[in-house]
Amino acid sequence: MTQPDDSTGKHDVRMRGFRSRTSVEDALRWIDANVFPLNSEAVTLGDAHGRVLASGITSPIDVPAFDRSAMDGFAVKSAETVGAGDYNPLPFRIVGVSMPGQPFEGVVERGEAVRIMTGAPIPHGVDAVVPAEYATVREGSVEITTTVASLKHIGRTAEDVAAGATVLAAGHRLRPQDVGLIASLGLPAVSAVRQPRVRIVVTGNELAEPGSERGPFQIYESNSHIIAGLVPRDDGVLFERIRCQDDRESILAAVTNPGADVVLISGGSSVGTEDHAPNIIREVGELPIHGVAMRPSSPAGIGRIGATLIFLLPGNPVSCLCAYDFFAGRAIRRLAGRNPDWPHRTEAGTLKSKIVSQVGRVDYCRVRINDGRIEPVALSGASILSSTTRANGFVIVPSALEGYAAGTEVEVRLYS
Ligand code: AMP
Ligand code: MG
Q1: Domain range holding 402?
Q2: What is the pLDDT of residue 379?
């Protein structure tokens, strides 16, 4: 074995191994202490779905802005309907029509009614609407066969939203109906937390692109295709993918290129001679976390260059997925103003066979669920990507435990 080249400084861990590993808890603490929502930007309603509000929405208007009919029928004075019924139809003179957007302009007098449609403004002088099924029109007048109370079938001004009311709070992630409500207030845009721009830098001399000719000892590049599905889940925008050989200069250029809030580096994160990224980050930025007490993903790293967050994702595909999910995903959700906690749906169940771990290390164990019985997938090394496709989800074994015995009730985070 060749001696490590220590010319890059005292922190060069290449070929020496990690002296100590950061705990997962400390790595998460670093993220929480250093990563905050990005600034805000104006977003038009068409692009607002799923976005996180940077400031709350206060209504500038009453909705509805006028009393309106909730039924098709006739607007009348409720007091004049007293005693009306099937055996006592009461006649009213029809003096006009109120349509949505086209109110009846006059004032309704005694003995009069206005034909009215759902959503049309309530004319002056009336206080109730008789539904059409209780009204029979005969030559310019209408016979009413039901008694209505005051305000019956009238939607009152501001009953939906009152002017000045805060309808959605800052930090809320907009659902379709939220965007509709904002539109109903007449607002064309919202102030949303900017979505983090994420670049992935894929390193590895041995990698070939899917669809291309593969040399005998090359492997197809898969990590960026895992990441491409995870970043949008966390509200990041994967705007760029750069392929690098294991070459200092090209990796340096790829990570320092401006324009990214987050740079994910796949591969070359560990202590091999071709693992350039950790030293590069230390030289041009900081790498407070390198080596984490977990399995897989122990060669993961977290740092930054200026305001850009850097995540070293080990090249083994399961490690890459796991390191993303533990650290990068959380940071991206924090930048995006989202709830930073695990986004997966969970399912509880009983372990059919034991999960073995080690005290002092967090384990990410892929499991299958059958009728509520949970079983670790058999072949599950960090390089066995199919362990994640055969699995329904994963169980996290905390560092304080040396595993879970068969029969233990555990929580599975489901892959989606
Ligand atoms: P590294 O972290 O670069 O030492 O890589 C660890 C292992 O993961 C090696 O077997 C690599 O060939 C493999 N690997 C690295 N990058 C990728 C990738 N993008 N897709 C699939 N496998 C990879
Ligand atoms: Mg590599």
Answers
A1: 346-414
A2: 87
